[in-house]
């Protein structure tokens, strides 16, 4: 705990003022999402993991939209506005205007680097402070360093001399494969001072933050580098190809974390899990599953195959097969699917069932209650142990208003019912098949209103003459006549009576 406190930086400044032109998007780059969070929220989560005293985000492009996103998702961050002077150096200078501290360590990171983790930042602060450095830059060795700033080192490699931008670099400097990640720990006082002394005399006419390193060194301060092996962690998103690549890498890391914690993921290649999802031990995730937002999966639950859950809570040992759920709660040991659609406000009780081809919305279904087949259930409460017959529709909408239906405990609703809300069916009541329930049914009563059936004999023979139906009917009737002629009189009479009743 003491260690954490001693390495907490005075401030983190997250740079997010750039236009992100290569995204070719109406949405600001840092608001694009991977793993269920914006790039910016990923960056801020890493920053917050170092417990900084102050957290500043530098904005300019689409400032108001990004600031609104921050207010919603990271209200502890302070916005600093960059002016029209371009460059990472100017961005940090504008950020520092919002920092109250006069000394200590300040971290600089980017809003478009989503895989960076708090542990790496803490290690950077630790290395920086224990060495008493003025600047410590996080670097990586990469296969293709094109476009990055290159780390210039002394002959024996032990000292960092500075950083040269790709556009300003000589051919021999461009052959250097150690790149600047853009993530640094600075001594706050040195940073403020050095930024006041850098210009824009370079290939891009910008204030380069990277120039702070050579300025500090010229002042005789210690400039250091920490090399990370994890190149993906410091990679930024510039276009949508990288967005997909880093999204896939984040997903791979998320799945690995869950598997190491005791979750079975049968097919990582077709499984997508957002960063905030929680999954308990011994849950099984089958192929083709997507778990989004604040979804929570309980112990030994089995999800999938081919299931998408968003902001949904699944209880221990529940099963969800080939279904889609949004803002739903699925109780312990309950079962859902295949092919069902649980919309917002669905609350399925423990050991309850939502079977195949069922749509539900804003409904609480009691413990052990079942909606097994082909139904729509909306704006309702269903008591424990109740069974809703196949193809039952809760008619909750009269074209103007929505109304609620209440079905009590241990009710048996027959097949193909329409429950016209507002209506209440009492505990232990039942309804016949095909009932349209428009009036309340008291506890223990049977509600029926299906029209009694009348058979019009020979209708097909008269009205559908010449059809296959007529041929089939005639053949069946003739066969009956023949068998009646062969059986004793008493049996024949019986059969005739049965035929009449059909
Ligand atoms: C910068 C570094 C480079 C490093 C690379 C790593 C400088 C001069 N160069 O390059 O050495 O290898 O990052 O990705 O620092 N930003 C602002 N305001 C600005 C300009 C940029 O806030 O005026 C922000 C951007 O939104 C982005 C980050 O800073 O989050 C980096 O900007 P970018 O233009 O991508 O940096 P590079 O010039 O590519
Ligand atoms: Ca970049």
Quick gist of this model?
The chain has 502 residues and is an alpha/beta fold. It contains twelve helices and 39 strands.
Indicate the mean pLDDT: 95
Query: Looking at CATH, which topology of the largest domain would you report?
Result: UDP N-Acetylglucosamine Acyltransferase, domain 1
Percent range of helical residues: 25-40%
CATH homology-level superfamily of the largest domain:
Hexapeptide repeat proteins
Strand element count: 39
CATH class of the largest domain: Mainly Beta
| Second CATH tier, the architecture of the largest domain | 3 Solenoid
**What is the count of structural domains?**
3
Q: What gyration radius follows from the Cα positions, in whole Å?
A: 34 Å
Strand content: 25-35%
The secondary-structure class comes to: alpha/beta
Task: List its traits.
disordered N terminus; Spore Coat Polysaccharide Biosynthesis Protein SpsA, Chain A; UDP N-Acetylglucosamine Acyltransferase, domain 1; 502 residues; 14-stranded parallel β-sheet; binds uridine-diphosphate-N-acetylglucosamine; binds calcium ion; seven-stranded mixed β-sheet; single chain; alpha/beta
